[in-house]
Amino acid sequence: MTMNTRNDMNERFTVRLRKAVHVFCAGHFITLTDDLCEAVHGHNWLVGADIEGQPDAHGMVIDFIRLRDLLSQIVSRLDHRMLLPMENRLLRVSTAPGPVVDGVAGPAEVTVRFQNRRWVFPADDCQLLPIENTTAEWLARWIGRELLDAMAAAGSPITGCLRIEVDECLGQSAVWECTNALGSACVESPKPPGAVKASDSRAG
C-alpha cells in the first residue's frame, strides 16, 4: 500500500476578515418590484472579506493589515449616509441647489422620485452609487470591486478568489464572489439558504 506524502495533499488557504471596524450604519430603500418601493429604513451592515490563494514566500496569502485598512476606507464612505442607486430604471435621482434664503441658494439636495412618491435628502448626507439597487447583493459587488482596485493600486493585487459578504440584519446576508480577481470572470453568488427573497420586504 502506498501512503500519500504531505506534498501530495490538496491544500487550500483562505484569509478571512470579520472585524468590528467593518460595520457601517446607513439608510436605504429598494424597489422590490416595478410597482413596489420600500419605505426608507436603515441597517447596521457588517462587511466580511475572504480571500483564497497560495501563501507567498513569507507564508501569507495577503497582507492582513493592508487588506483591513483599505476595506475600512471603503466601508467608511458608506457610514452614516443615505445610500442611493444611480442606475435604477425605476427611480429618478437628481441633485440641485437647495432653496434660496435671503438671496443665497441653500446646500445641495438630492431628490428621488418613484411614481408619485418623492424624497429629498441633503446631498452631503448621501452616497450616490453606480448600482441598480441598494440591495446587499449589489453593495457586496460594489465593495468587492472597489477593494480589488484599491489593493492593486497599493501594490498588493488580489490574485486568488475574493469573496465579499454583506450582512444587513444579523444572519441575513448576500455574498459576491470573484473567481478570478485578475480576470473578468466575476460571478455573483446566490443568497445563502434562509435569506429573504428579492421580492420580500428587507426592512426586518
Number of contiguous helices: 2
Strand-and-helix sequence, N→C? EEEEEHEEEEEEEHEEE
The average pLDDT is 87
Class of secondary structure makeup: alpha+beta
Helix percentage: 10-25%
Radius of gyration: 20 Å
Strand content: 35-45%
Q: What's the shape?
A: elongated
As residue ranges, the low-confidence spans are 188-201
Descriptive report:
- The chain has two helices and 15 strands.
- It has helices at 64-76, 136-153, and strands at residues 13-17, 23-28, 31-33, 36-37, 41-53, 81-85, 92-96, 100-101, 104-105, 109-114, 117-122, 126-129, 161-167, 173-178, 186-188.
- The strands form four sheets. Strands 1, 2, 5, 6, 12, 13, 14 and 15 form an eight-stranded mixed sheet that branches. Strands 7-10-11 form a three-stranded antiparallel sheet, with no helix packed on it. A two-stranded antiparallel sheet has the order 3-4.
- The protein starts with 12 loop residues before the first strand and ends in a 16-residue tail after the last strand.
Task: Describe the structure in brief.
The chain is α+β, with helices and mostly antiparallel strands. It has two helices and 15 strands.
Which terms would index this structure?
204 residues, alpha+beta, eight-stranded mixed beta sheet, three-stranded antiparallel beta sheet, 2 helices
